[in-house]
Design brief:
Elements: E1 2-6, H1 11-22, E2 26-31, E3 48-51, H2 61-67, E4 71-74, H3 90-106, E5 111-117, E6 127-128, H4 139-158, E7 161-167, E8 169-171, H5 180-189, E9 194-195, E10 202-203, E11 205-207, H6 208-220, E12 225-229, E13 235-236, H7 237-248, E14 254-255, E15 270-271, H8 274-280, H9 289-302
Parallel strand pairs: 1-2, 1-4, 2-3, 4-5, 5-7, 6-15, 7-12, 8-11, 9-14
Antiparallel strand pairs: 10-13
Helix pairs in contact: 1-6, 3-4, 5-7, 7-9
Amino acid sequence: MRVFLTGASGFIGSHVARTLLSTGCEVAILTGPGNPLWRLRDVAHRLILLKGELSDIAALRPALGEWKPEACIHMAWYAEPNKYLTSPEIIPALTASLTLLDELIKVGCRQVVMAGTCAEYDTEAGFLREDGPTRPTTIYAAAKLSLSLIGQQIASAAGVRFAWARLFYLYGPYEDERRAVPALIRALLRGETFQATKGEQVRDYLHVEDVASALCALAERDVSGIVNIASGVPVTMRQVMETVGEITGRTDLIRFGELPYRDWEPRFICGDNRRLRSETGWEPQYPTLRSGLSQTMEWWKARGVR
């Protein structure tokens, strides 16, 4: 299968690229000037590089038309840590994504997978199902929900399959070190204290390689509609952090209760993944939080973090 992938240089996208290559897919990626591919150095020679910007995706129509992608997995989005939830940079990403969908339809692509977020849901609904209520509370979540609604209508009218993958919480190799799990791992490996909340928030965490394999499964199995990509297992943030502490032997360095909860932070977020499993046959490679965090820990160690 020929797959066009955007956002391949990012945390999730790089794992999607590797997964596609491992299954024998031909993979073309969107890469702009100055777009670093450090996460893909060892496999970059196996990728087809289409030079361009998401903001001017129409300029790629001749190249896409010649290559004729059978599927597209769209991961490119504005995701600067600590900024992306409320940044106005979200709006250009929304409009560019709709333009991308239009261009894909014009070149005959028949399966499109785009990445959404669990933040689209009304998080007070308990376990989150694809048919559950939505209530975005940030620009980021509202833009994602808008893309989902409009994209499904455009694709349906064109006879194109459109899968909207709502991603939950994730972790793993190549994650931005400013985010919670890598920041904790790096601090404990260095013997530094780590300030945390009490950790009572409940979350749904999935290893990034399992997220990538789920996204690829949606493309390969021609799935349409909204699909949760989640572990389906609720864990408290305290459990997540204590597991990292146990693996490193430095639970004593975690300072629970020294940070306040953020005002907007939901107390319970966990997804129902039964549709993903039943329609694609997907199973996680890392079935337990400990197994995934242990692999992630070893990845950081291999890069000299002690």
